[in-house]
Amino acid sequence: METPSAKSSNEAPNPVPRYSYYALSILTLVNFLNYIDRQMVPAVATSMQSDLHLSDTELGAMEAALLVSFTVLAPLFGWLGDRWSRTKLMASAAVIWSLATGLTAIIDHSPLLPPALQTHLPLVELPLMLSGVGIAICSVRAFVGIGESSYSTITPTLIADYFPPQRRATALGVFQIAIPMGFALGFFIGALLDHFFGWRWAFMIVGLPGLITAGFLWKLREPERGTTELRPTQPAAASQPWLRTCWRILTTRDWLLSTAGYTALTFVLGAFATWAKKLLETEKHMGKLTAGIVIGAITLFAGFAGSYGGGRLADWIATKRRNGHFLVCAASSLLGIIPSVLALILHRPLLFLPAIFLVVAFLFANNAPFHAILISSVPPSIRASAMALNIVTIHLLGDVISRSGVGVLSDSFAAGRLSMLAGLARTIGIDPVTEHLTSALLVVPAALFVSAFFFYWGGRKYAK
Fold first, then answer.
1. Contacts of 307 (CB under 8 A, 6+ apart)
2. Separation CA 278–CA 104 (nearest Å)
3. Please, which residues bridge with residue 118 across strands?
4. Is the Cβ–Cβ distance between 114 and 135 less than 8 Å?
5. What is the pTM assigned to this prediction?
6. What is the pLDDT of residue 265?
């Protein structure tokens, strides 16, 4: 299949209809609301924990529940997205996650709360204790994940049919801008609503806009699959057995190496999204509202610069080097390692806040070029399935682990366990008992190194 970088430099760009830009604006707006809803738990975490007596382990489990349902159902929505109306599926998804977000505020009042759970995690033998309230909220957050799974799986394939290959990374960059903006406004709006009205109203208020925008999604025109490609498209996915389609995707080199690199990056993004605000409050000693505003502002500006800048830079480099998208991904992951360490070990705001800004910018610089690689690695007829398998991989092996695992590690460090890892934290000046969340987040720079390795590997093979 021809990629954007394989296109002749002498060939004029395909004109993009105005309707494609309108559709992109609607899809980006809904993605923006999607990430605001997703970010509500981290934004009001300390208030929820204080009111409902929840541990870090339970907080991480709520985030993991959303992502597990998000991930498990992605193959189903990938299959549906290659066969049914994508705009109708996305509109239905927006309704589901919006209603579930509002329900999060009142589920603890249910008379049918499940019993508490106490067990041990397999392999590592760390304790896992969840209250009935914690399990109930996990269940509701799982429904948020169901809606978001449909939207996230299908939308990039729709954008690929609205925009030709040479404009695709830039279009995806615009779409991906909604991620840092949603994260940022989620932190800010959540902290503000929590401060003035309480955490319950925060969930109920942010769920409303998704119900309104679902109508705009329902009315979007459905483009023909593969209509923007430079070559004739492959046979429709419906003519191939789904398992054969999955095997074809899993054995595609560009898909496999880029997914491996982005899985490690998703691990880092999940840790940041869930724990950054609480880290500022509890171990950097900021107030709740101040922490929400600060982390929101950093995510907004750094995320915008990284998402849009990464897409534009990758498209420009790809006109000169076939492996340009891979190189941008590898460089941004590698450049984020040192700032991530500094953000953890430093305690003066004038020092650790710029470090956090750099980490966020480098994290989001990966989004657009990675999705351009992913979309271009397979034919249009199986792109929704490729997105679905990617979602399964990056979340099950990425932020499902980091969002919940960091909480378990934090509680374990606070209880004086994990002596070997605690010793490592002490060697770089971190007290694992009083700074237990900081110690748990030391997994971040290690994951960034793994991400850079796989993207660089993909770039080397692609260049050959």
1. 173, 176, 177, 179, 180, 364, 365, 367, 368
2. 20
3. 129
4. yes
5. 0.71
6. 93
